[in-house]
Design brief:
The chain has helices at 29-40, 56-66, 90-95, 114-126, 142-153, 166-174, 236-243, 252-267, 273-282, and strands at residues 15-21, 44-50, 70-73, 87-88, 100-104, 107-111, 134-138, 158-162, 180-182, 193-196, 224-227, 247-249. By secondary structure, the protein is an alpha/beta fold. The strands form two sheets. Strands 2-1-3-5-6-4 form a six-stranded mixed beta sheet, with helices on both faces. A six-stranded parallel beta sheet has the order 9-8-7-10-11-12, with helices on both faces. Helix 1 (29-40) packs antiparallel against helix 9, helix 4 crosses helix 5 and helix 4 packs across helix 8. The structure holds NADP nicotinamide-adenine-dinucleotide phosphate. The site of NADP nicotinamide-adenine-dinucleotide phosphate has 23 residues, from helix 5 and helix 8.
């Protein structure tokens, strides 16, 4: 059961932000955002609204009517909110998907912060710059596509997409332009950075042996192995990476940074990342 904060006192001037999705009860966004608002002494609060499929445009109309401070968007609304917005960032435009909405001069702008969140997390939390690195992305869903786009924007020399369904791999690789291509399992061992953007490993017992998104012998010493899956935090892939001498990077950093980008746009202040990390790991 969620912990109730008896010290939270919303006032007549509290700015409200929200996350919409279905299901949305499991979302960690309110916990991360509210921890950051409290730490910064900001009179802001974030709540989650369960919005069923088909309700995206109505939810954006509510943002305008209630002048909400910002909106995060999760499944199944990431594409459906787009017609209701005034403009999109280049990443959101390229991906056809929005996970965050903010006000700019009285207009609503749609962003896609997932991939940028991963790039920032690697830079700030793990001191890894993706520029000129060879990357393999496992998976070709929404998170994978955002990651491919962001890696190329950040200067990765090559982004190879390896996915169970080849047609989807081609769509994701195309987002990488000249640096993107579809690859096979054999490509993984060559990569400097391997990123799991499939859902394989989600819900596995923490740190235990379990299903892997690629063969364990395609990982090697010196590689950076990132798992976007963050439940559990130490996935079977990260355990396998550590066992062979690769550097494991968990998905909490991306979760924190993609949210921090939204909070900064909404409030004009860079949130305290350490506070958000603690809130994310406590969830
Ligand atoms: P999605 O759109 O549903 O895509 C899922 C991907 O996983 C597809 O490429 C799918 O392959 C692949 N896949 C699923 N089951 C598989 C299996 N058994 N074997 C091989 N491939 C399999 O999901 P998403 O939104 O991209 O999210 C993917 C993961 O990233 C989720 O676990 C999500 O929680 C995580 N995520 C984390 C963050 C973060 O901040 N850390 C942010 C976003 C997402 P096919 O194309 O062949 O179906």
């Amino acid at each position: 059961m969620a912990e109730i904060d008896h010290q939270w006192n919303p006032s007549g001037s509290t700015r409200l932000a929200a996350v919409i999705g279905s299901p949305v009860r499991h979302s960690r966004s309110p916990a991360l955002a509210n921890a950051a608002f409290r730490a910064a002494g900001l009179d802001w609060a974030m709540v989650a609204f369960e919005v069923p499929d088909g309700g995206a445009e109505g939810a954006v109309a509510a943002v305008r009517a209630l002048h909400l401070g910002g909106l995060m968007v999760t499944m199944p609304h990431k594409a459906a909110v787009i017609p209701a917005l005034d403009s999109l960032t280049p990443a959101a435009q390229a991906l056809g998907a929005v996970n965050s909405i903010s006000w700019v001069g009285g207009t609503l702008v749609g962003h896609n912060t997932d991939g940028e969140g991963l790039v920032r997390s690697l830079r700030h939390d793990s001191e890894v710059d993706v520029a000129r690195r060879r990357c393999v992305v496992l998976g070709a869903g929404g998170a994978a596509r955002s990651v491919v786009h962001a890696l190329v924007v950040a200067g990765a020399s090559e982004v190879v997409v390896v996915n169970r369904t080849p047609d989807k791999a081609a769509v994701a690789a195309a987002l990488g332009g000249a640096a993107g291509r579809v690859g096979q399992v054999d490509d993984i061992v060559q990569a400097d950075i391997v990123i799991n953007a499939t859902s394989v490993g989600m819900g596995a017992p923490a740190g235990a042996s379990g299903p892997l998104p690629c063969p364990a012998d395609s990982l090697r010493r010196g590689q950076i192995v990132v798992d976007l899956v963050y439940q559990p935090i130490v996935t079977p892939l990260l355990a396998a990476a550590a066992a062979c001498g690769a550097q494991p990077v968990d998905g909490i950093g991306m979760l924190v940074h993609q949210a921090a980008i939204s909070l900064e746009r909404w409030t004009g202040e860079l949130p305290e990342l350490a506070v958000m990390h603690r809130a994310a790991r406590a969830g």
